[in-house]
Amino acid sequence: MRPFGERWLAAYAVNPRDSRGRLWPEAPSPTRSPFQRDRDRVIHSTAFRRLKHKTQVFVYHEGDHFRTRLTHSLEVSQIARALARSLGLDEDLAEALALSHDLGHTPFGHVGEEALDACMGAFGGFDHNAQALRVVTRLERRYAAFDGLNLTWEALEGLVKHNGPLLGADGQPTERYRSRGIPAAILEYDAAHDLWLGTHASAEAQCAALADDIAYNAHDLDDGLRAGLFSLADARAVSFLAGIVDEIGSLHPGLEPSRVVHEMMRRVITRFVEDATAESARRLGALAPRDADAVRFASAPVVAFSPAFVEADKAIKTFLFSNMYRHPYLMRMRKKADRVVRDLFGIILADSELLPPEWRAGLDGGNEARRARRVADFIAGMTDRYAEAEHGRLFDATGRSC
């Protein structure tokens, strides 16, 4: 049997043999590395299965071919593995992080998170990164010896620092958390299992984060074109995309539009991956990190786009914001989703008997903050269709409780 440590890794990669371990110590597996076990635990989790019915942008019943959180996570994992492989990193850790990065998302995409954050305003707010940590450390209940999935330190730090360090050099929260502070769930776990909140995550985690950006751009373009929210002619407003469309037209004149779209998506992903590989190799060469911790303590991320592709990324995001995310049709759906989440939160917070029996345990005593967090956990775990069904059960057509 080939030992898991036989695969070649660069000096700056996270070597599974050097893992800092798990909060609850476990005997090593004779057939899988610690990060392979992390990946497998994520795949077998209830939260991961629910991603099948949590949408990215569209509501689940609008079509069978639009992305869900599950298909997005699978696409991110493929890109993350490709980046990690090209840079000599641990592919299994990159994959585990890619598959788990959306576990904390609510139903109805970002509008659901914004609604739940508003509902939780008096109780510390709601943050999907903090919720993902809650899912893998507390809310999943599959094992006899511990709550959560008991993932490795490396997986947890990558999950928490998905968007970079949480603390600056001065020990204060970075810009993302400056106004409201770091979520309590992260601080509570960090106190028991220090995740080095002031450093960057590993290069493997940075691969997963950049893969998320690449997948989002390419696949939201694909979904927006498929839904008819904008056309290929509209997409030409982005010079990066116009160049690709012209190239396809030159190589394949008269190609049917649906194939032009697929060819464009292939090229968008390929060019961003190739650019990230080249720029990351350049940064790693300049830094010459001797180990994975040197990557963590670097002054900037080592996995990144070149300046030209940073601009292309911004241009695509700007186009999608105007032409897709703020499209009148989607804005109507956003209002409906916002109302569903707010209605559910309000009625369940007022009457915790509406929670399933296993969710009511330990809520006696009138602690409103604890009850609100439990309600938020419950709603965040809902799929789109379950949230709509519960709303239909609890409210009539006018929005009044039944």
Automatic annotation (TrEMBL):
Task: Enumerate the GO terms in the molecular function aspect.
Answer: dGTPase activity
* Alphabetic keyword roster: Hydrolase
Q: Which Pfam families match?
A: HD, HD_assoc
Tell me yes or no: is Magnesium among this UniProt entry's keywords. no
Does the keyword Signal feature in the UniProt annotation? no
InterPro entries, per database record: dGTPase, dGTPase-like, dNTPase_2, HD/PDEase_dom, HD_domain, PHydrolase_assoc_dom
Give start and end of each HD domain: 69-217
A Gene Ontology biological process term? dGTP catabolic process
Q: Which family does it belong to?
A: Belongs to the dGTPase family. Type 2 subfamily.
Which protein is depicted? Deoxyguanosinetriphosphate triphosphohydrolase-like protein
What's the source species for this entry?
A: Chelatococcus reniformis
